[in-house]
Amino acid sequence: MTNIIERHYSAFKGELKKLYGFKKDYLFLDLTLGDGGHTEEALRAGCRVVSFDIDIEAVKRAVGFVPEEFSPLVFESEYISAPAPKDYTWIIVRGNFVKVEEIAGKLELPKFDGIMVDLGPSQFQILSPERGFSFDIDEPLDMRLSKEMGVTAADLIAVLNEGELADLFSLGDEPFAKPIARILVKQRNISPIKTTKQLADLVARVKKGRQGKIHPATQVFMALRMAVNLERENIKLLLPQLPKLLKKDGLMGVISFHSGEDKLIKNFIEDGERVEISAINEKPIVPSTSELLISPRTRSAKLRIAKKNS
Fold first, then answer.
1. pLDDT at 149
2. Which of 43, 234, 249, 260 has the least C-beta neighbours within 10 A?
3. What is d(CA 266, CA 264) in angstroms, rounded to the nearest whole number?
4. Which DSSP helix (H) or strand (E) runs through 219?
5. CA nearest 214: which of 173, 177, 255?
6. Confidence band, pLDDT 50/70/90 cuts, at residue 294
7. pLDDT at residue 1, as a whole number
8. Each residue of 81-135: pLDDT tens digit?
9. Among residues 248, 253, 257, which one has the least CA distance to residue 268?
10. What is the C-alpha to C-alpha distance for residues 290 and 268, in angstroms, rounded to an integer?
11. pTM
């Protein structure tokens, strides 16, 4: 299973021990498990870890990648009926991280020394057939991180009007948002837009091929993924919960890959009325040159860290 698609390279891999000060019995909350890169780094440093992921396939992959010596206890968020054992090494919660405060209460988890949120999708999710994330594979326009979510990217393209589509693509920093929305509405009046290739070809027609080093459909696909999975809404719901889960002097870090997300995080940390946390880094931490040589996809990653003051 784990060999079908190469393991995702977690942004800032190998840096967390230095940034967070990992040590034996450090309590670490990884709210975006993915293929387990950040979780494994914490476990190898002697930390006790609680990991979240809404994607059941991601949970299976992470368990397959992380060494068996760290075998986890797995909880389904909807069926938690008793506290977690006090002597756990690794707990996985299969559920949406926006419910983390509620779930931590049900499991009677103590306050954490450190929290990590990585908002980028994993390579497994991007490249998995039938998920509809990739413009390099012709597949249904889905883009849901979990099949439990109802609305697909194809649904949004089918029902949003031209102005709503343009606004949506603008959230993905797409400079051609209006003409792309126009051509999609024109095309769907002829026949439905149901596949990734159909969408990518229409975007490329507007943008006349590739723009620089990235595929011309990159921003449109990103905007749709964010909308389908309610990513901006979930970030707004999640951020206020994080300080409540930290010990005094505990650290919360959020990795974003989009300017809109980074702005949300920056504004939350720097809110003049918020006194419980303070920024560790005035400007976001970006990947090192050596990391970019290993994983060019991390080029847009930005990490902001804040400390719990009291």
1. 76
2. 249
3. 6
4. helix 218-228
5. 173
6. confident
7. 39
8. 999 999 999 999 999 999 999 999 999 999 999 999 998 776 555 656 666 677 7
9. 253
10. 30
11. 0.86
Q: How far apart are CA 37 and CA 257, in angstroms?
A: 17
- The domain defined by 16-123+232-308 carries CATH number 3.40.640.10: no
* Closest CA relative to residue 255, chosen from 91, 101, 38, 28: 38
Q: Which of 132, 143, 115, 149 is nearest to 28 (CA)?
A: 115
Strand extents, DSSP E, 172-301: 246-256, 277-279
Contacts of 286 (CB under 8 A, 6+ apart): 301, 302, 303
* Residue 123 confidence (pLDDT): 59
**150-228: CATH class:** mainly alpha
Closest CA to 5 of 90, 97, 116, 130: 130
CB distance 109 to 84 below 8 Å: yes
Dist. CA 143–CA 184, nearest whole Å: 18
Taking residue 189's Cβ as centre, other Cβ atoms within 10 Å add up to 8
As beta bridge partners, residue 29 has 50, 115
Alpha-carbon distance values, 270 to 233, 275, 303 (Å): 19, 9, 15
Which string of DSSP letters, residue by residue, matches 18-48? IIII--TT-EEEES--TTSHHHHHHHHTT-E
E strands in the chain: 27-30, 48-53, 73-76, 90-94, 112-118, 246-256, 277-279, 302-308
Cα Rg of the chain (Å, integer): 20
239 CB-contact burial (10 Å; exposed 0-12 / middle 13-18 / buried 19+): buried
Q: What pLDDT was estimated at residue 209?
A: 61
What are the domain boundaries of the chain? Answer: 16-123+232-308, 150-228
Q: Given phi > 0 = left and psi -120 to 50 = alpha, else beta, which region is 187?
A: alpha
Tell me the pLDDT of the chain averaged across its residues: 89
Helices (H), 139-210: 153-159, 162-171, 177-188, 196-207
